[in-house]
Write a structure and sequence with these properties.
heterotrimer, A mainly alpha (about 290), B alpha/beta (about 250), C mainly alpha (about 325), A: about 290 residues, mainly alpha, two-stranded antiparallel sheet, 11 helices, C: two-stranded antiparallel sheet
Amino acid sequence: MPDLAATVTIQLFNGLVVGMIYALIGIGLTLILGLLDIPNFAHGALYALGAYLLLQLLGLTGSFWLGLLIAPVVVFILSMLLERLLIRPLYPVGSNYVLLFTFAVSVIVQELIILVWGPVGFSVLPPSILAGSVELGLFSYPRYHIFVMLVSVAVILALWLLLERTRYGAIMRAGIENKTMVSALGIDVYRLFTLGFGLGAYLAALAGVLMAPIRGLMPYMGVDILPFAFVVVALGGLGNIIGAIAAGLIIGVTQSLTTQFWPQGSTITIFAVMAAILLIRPQGLFGAR
Amino acid sequence: MALLRTEDLTVRFGALTAVDRVTLEIEPGTVHAIIGPNGAGKTTLFNAITGEVRPTSGRVFFLDRDITGLTVYQRAQLGIGRSFQRTNIFPNLTVFENVWLAAFARVRPSSLPRRVPRQRLAGVKDRVHEVLAEVGLTHRAHHRAAELSHGDQRLLEVAIALGLSPKLLMLDEPTAGLSPEETRRMMELIKQLAARYTILLIEHKIYLVMEVSQIISVMHFGRLIAQGPPEQIRTDPAVQEAYLGRR
Amino acid sequence: MVRLRPRLGPLTPWVLLGVALLVLPDLMRTTVATEVWIFAILALAFNLLLGYTGLLSFGQATFFGAGAYTAGLLLIHQRVHPLVALAAAALAGGLVAAVVGYLCIRRVGLYFIMLTFAFNLMAYFIVYQASSITGGVDGLPGVPRPPVNLYFVAWDIRPGVAYYLFVSLIFFLSALVLKRVVDSPLGLVFQAIRENEARAAALGYNTWAFKRLAFVSSGAFSGLAGALYGMLFGIVPIDTIYWVTSGNIVFMTLIGGTGSFFGPIIGAIFFIWLAETVSVRWERWPLIFGLVFVFVIFFFRGGFVEVWRRLRAVLPKSGRGVWPDYGPSKD
């Protein structure tokens, strides 16, 4: 049944591609969760912002590459400013208020996006080099999708290097594990939070940029993606970066395959699994505790 | 019959043995003190008795009933009332409400809807006034608990436990952080309470313990190293060694 | 249940509430005014969880929607009496809350919040997928408003003003019941759990059971509000169970003020006013909502009620805490 095999393989690949993007979002969210101890409700909005800034840069420069490079960096800087100026003062007030603030940010950013770019969606074309498909034996597969896979892997590798091989990374990992200890070692935990938040936001925005040519832009894309980001994080374990990667891929593939073969059940199953994990195994599928 | 009995009670946190095979008996009507250097496991012992911590092994009996498997709230319902080392009150509620909650729990702790007769409610109120008068907080009854001075909060801490009309009153360092005058006041209160309650007391101020207790148990590194009336403990070499180190 | 306070507390807020109930339809469209009181019930119900028991649940829409869809389906398919629909909706909301609450309470803090959120997401997608029953993303249309038949009276609640009256009555009754609950010993136990759950347990209260009770009560009233909402617009939009609605409920309750019983009502008025009145002039009204919320987070955590109290502080008054006054009865 070559057709079925081809279909399944394509869906599998699609799932992996989308899964990698979910992984990027998930890593960002889990990083923020692990460091700041709050679910960043603004994460979806940052993802959307990345995509819309890409649109803007495309309009200004005509270059997807510039957009890919610059948009996430802009979000990186803006979110660090946000954290430093508006989130940091809330830490002593209570984590609930930080959480609520991120929720407010998501609403505000959402509305600002619509204000600036309008309520109608946009489609974004991948750069011409990446247009079209590649022949892969049984089927042909979009070049852009392969590109996304490669970029995601590269970014995740770079992140891994950052976290495992550099001092900053070690501090960040330690910060996720034990903030008090890190603080006791004389490290400015607050600056760590700012950086962590920025890094998480960068990943979200990057994911938005990468996803743009695949799914297009819609003003509510942030709100739409947030639940999935949360599922990835819950599945991978709160604060667990490797877990987020694996979970992202699992969610992506599951979603892709079930949409093909059991559309009704796919999303419900995903959230049922999330609830089950949070209840039964809160450290996630891959966490150890 | 001992009011409270522990049998080889052991609490281990990973590699650390906080409570090591402690066997204790608390006789009704006595003031029984637990002393020991810092980290001896006294508060952990308390926690194992009240249920905040599950013992690794051993058992706890209250009125000859095995309570080892019961939850914190179930043990409280049986009549174990406890105050905490770090002030553990309801900060935004008034002093009156703080104690009222304890007194009411005695009457109706369950969440199932049931009418409480007006008379019993009045009884609860009376009990609150009684307790507040006893500890000397009547004049602060309608102040927010958070607004109280540290000394008054420690009194409230005890008052809440008293509100339960407990069969066993467990006081964890009631004089923690108190000025000498406030400490005196607390000690007088404990002496008054000793007449009507069985008290299990953790204290650091040895001179107070000597003054107020009938039996003293000494803990060191989780183990019970000595037990007896104050005069005996005062001269016990093992106790001296624990506190002062080897000579 | 028995009250500690013989009265319903100071009379002023009730008088103001009565005035608001009478005056609101003159200040805005009748449907909007009706919507205000529906969300007021919802906000009061939510505050039972947040303000009183200290549970930040991010899934209130789950119960609101459960009630709305239950009532909607019964009204459409079974042509039930509106009061039956309301009761069924309350039951549905309460049941869903019992299940969700039972599961979510097993965790605390961050996990609890995420669990309530997860269940909301699940509920949303179930409704989304079961479109043959629920109408999916387009909502459930054709919800009728049958007359309220009581003994020999048949009250036609289809006219806007009649329905406003109906909703106002239900709201007022709900407010009375909820006020009695929070002023009762049960209300104080809820607050004890908020203040210091461990100590409450050490006093002998089965805090899990009480939290579940808070959930069920909150869910029942939220479901009730959902039914009223469905009947108001003749349609149950999927928004009723959308997690963003849960967020809005949190927002409005906080903006009104969680530290007082009546605060959330003010938040509901503000939210609906923005959503229905300002929205006509400016579609981006959520932006204002978000900004006001940020303002509240930073400067007036007690919400509008705190603003009011701080203004009144200019005048001499007795210094009480932010939380509901609860003293001995004045018999």
